[in-house]
Amino acid sequence: MASLLTTADRLLRGMDVRDGEARPQRSWSATLLCLCAFGMLYGAMMGTFTGMAPGRWMQMVYSAIKVPLLLLATFAISLPSFCVLTTLLGLRRDLGRAVGAIVSSQAVLTVVLASLAPVTLLWYVSSPRYEGAILFNAVMFGIAAMGAQRALHRSYAPLIASDRRHRSLLRVWLATYAFVGVQMGWLLRPFIGAPQHPPSLIREGAWDNAYEIVARMAWRFLTGTE
To answer: What is the model's pTM?
Structure first.
């Protein structure tokens, strides 16, 4: 536990970048463990919306598994195109450092999410609306994503300083990751668990368009319509 917190502290403080130089990661396994552990912590909190009554607590287990899965699956789907573009631009020599920075930023995202878990619990206690819980968690992920982007830009600064083409690659990565991440999040639902449905790992009808559904959900929540 102490080593896990030490890894989280190192990632948050950007201790892999000093004096404009990117330093090697102490351990990829430690970073991935941090990502999974803190992701599972927030995922478990997401799954408590319907309570801990018999037959409902399994949603907490499912959600704990799926938050790290969401991040790792999105990373895996987005990575091949990033590698190809990096090679086409003649920046293959920096690929290891770039991927290391990306993985570290994903771990930072889960650490920020875990820190927001008590806030999410407070929202659940204060508001019983299911759609409100979904939108609130989307906001929490947005806040965590901003923290992860801050860490990613910090780690990427030495790469951009060495070759400005890395800035364009970073923008392409962020756009690709965001697009894939939203759709993957929809495919892997439920994370919260609708009160009228039993806990499930994957909901039927997963292959919908996430952007269209979320827009409708936001409209219903804001207008108070059903």
So the answer is: 0.86
